[in-house]
Specification:
It is built from 6 helices and no strands. It is mainly α. The chain folds into 2 domains: 30 residues, no CATH class; 59 residues, TrpR-like (Trp Operon Repressor, Chain A, Orthogonal Bundle). Helix 3 runs antiparallel to helix 4 and helix 3 packs across helix 5. It is globular, with a radius of gyration of 15 Å.
Length: 89
């Protein structure tokens, strides 16, 4: 896998985060506001999917694209991350 060491280093840095403030300052340095917002949209979309909301409701509430929502849905169905870390709130 290309960049395997760099990706591992990124995960190691993220694992050092202990508070919401830690997350805020790291992600503000690491990502643009739009990248952070895009990730937040995906988390919200996954949460709404777990709540059995329709695609139309989710797109209206999050303004996420249908292509991105489809990817989130596929990851929620077949992946492990969303299932493990996203609550239905």
């Amino acid at each position: 896998m290309p960049y395997e060491e760099e990706i591992k280093n990124l995960y190691d840095v993220i694992l050092k985060l202990k508070t919401e403030k830690d997350c805020e300052v790291l992600f503000e340095d690491l990502c643009t506001k739009n990248e952070i917002f895009a990730m937040a949209q995906r988390v919200k979309a996954a949460t709404l999917l777990k709540q059995k909301k329709t695609y139309e409701q989710i797109i209206e509430e999050t303004d996420i694209s249908s292509a991105t929502l489809s990817r989130v849905s596929k990851c929620l169905k077949y992946g492990e991350g969303y299932k493990k870390f996203i609550d239905e709130k």
